[in-house]
Design a protein that fits this description.
335 residues; alpha/beta; 9 helices; 41% helix
Amino acid sequence: MTLSPVMPVPLLIVVFSVLLAFVVWQLVSRENRSRRLSWSLRGAMVVLLLLVALRPGVSGGGGNEATTDVDVFFVVDTTTSIVAEDYDGSDPRLDGVRSDIVDLVEAYPGAKFALLSFDSSAIVRVPLTSDATAIANASEVLAPEITIYSTGSSISQANELLASTLERAEQAEPDRSRIVYYFGDGEQTSSAPVESFEESAQFVSGGYVFGYGTEAGGPMREQTGYYDDDKTDDGYVTDDSGSPARSVIDEQNLRAIADQLGVEYAHRTAPGSTPLAEAGSSSIRSDSDPSRGGVVELYWIPAAALVLLLAVEAVVVLRRLREIRAAADRQGSGA
């Protein structure tokens, strides 16, 4: 059994000790049996979340295999413009991002991958993992920001998160190379000033900034939170005149990001022939030691159980809300 915690173990101990202590306090202070049952359920959630954070795994079989001694970081723009329909004709740009991520994962056998995304905020969707399937699945469910919540997009929204994520990776394994792939259209619609990615450059061994879109631009479907690239009945984002707004690629901004990171720029207009950073091919080696196998990650097991418990909790909460509303209605009728 192996463990690959998503954060330093001392910090994990502190965070989950506080959470468990709060749950225990609630269990002791509650006299109602149903409330105790609810808090027992939440205690189980905390334990499962801890198991997910520890990222348990088991050693896989040995044998000859190619291993890439690099950490690959994908940084994806998920603002509304990423679904502008001007990729490979009239497909959403997000289709191109997904296709390129799948190709890149296959090009780095045995590497570790992380997936970051940004719109109005930046988040780490998948921390560094050797589970290529997890990255592929996460990229498939990437969805753009909900249109009504959009306040403008900043192409540098992820600069601080990327720098801190790269720094932690360098501190954990300084001998590994780190490659960054940035996926976006370069369109800056936020009033906030564009910030630099230069702080990340010291940790980057290579990579690419991939640009999506055309100079003519493409219309963007409104996003309601249920993104489906096969849907055709959603309306389009409109401009002040009521006409469909068009998102246009800004390659000058994208080239500036590439210069700041110290990587190359490539305009992506169709699937296939995905450029590969040189640092990756130079770090590929053959591992013929049968005693050294890969790691089969098992965090998905407690994660699946956690999702199930969350669903149960949601049902309980909805039922209580209905009870409260019914009681309020009865009180109002009695008045």
